[in-house]
Amino acid sequence: MTVPVTIVMIEDDEGHARLIEKNIRRAGVNNEIVPFRDGTGAIDYLFGVDGTAIVNRGKPLLILLDLNLPDMTGIDILKRVKENEHLKRIPVVVLTTTDDKHEIQRCYDLGCNVYVTKPVNYENFANAIRQLGLFFAVIQVPEAE
After folding, report:
1. Which helix (H) or strand (E) holds 10?
2. Of 55, 2, 57, whose CA–CA distance to 31 is shortest?
3. How far apart are CA 38 and CA 69, in angstroms?
4. Which fold has domain 6-138?
């Protein structure tokens, strides 16, 4: 039996978060989405009370990550996730307004799987999220160790 993938959405802009979820749903993805408006809450969820992340060992997760958060950078979260033995195989999709080539390369170097730049134009953004939803519908998330 396959356990459905839980999408962990780390996005501080409430409007963007609603738009992302709406378009993921529109693409036919009905997986649970656990939203966080800051990095601290997301880190607590991912790493658990003891900070080891053993709480999420074996759970199929996918992280949707904004880089610009109020309390820490998405880069910090990405780095911590990819350095953790229980979380390092979790796919991370960076979804942010930052289109700096060095920042994009840095995210890939740290282990992000997909980097999507949020278009400022609403319709383009909505379309990008619909495409991302279709991606979620076909992606196979490897089991964590």
Report:
1. strand 6-10
2. 2
3. 6
4. Rossmann fold (3.40.50)
CA 124 to chain centre: 20
Nearest Cα to Cα of residue 135 among 127, 145, 143? 127
Using DSSP bridges, classify how beta strands 92-96 and 33-36 pair: parallel, antiparallel or unpaired: unpaired
Higher pLDDT, 106 or 97: 106
Length of the chain equals 145
CA distance 39 to 105: 21
Where are any strands of DSSP class E within the chain?
A: 6-10, 33-36, 61-65, 92-96, 114-117
Tokens representing 93? Answer: 């999709």
Compare 97 and 138 and report the one with higher pLDDT.
97
DSSP code string of 39-63: HHHHHHHHH-TTSS-GGGTT--EEE
Domain ranges in the chain are 6-138
Question: In whole angstroms, what is the distance from residue 142 CA to residue 101 CA?
Answer: 28
Determine what percent of the chain is predicted with pLDDT higher than 90: 53
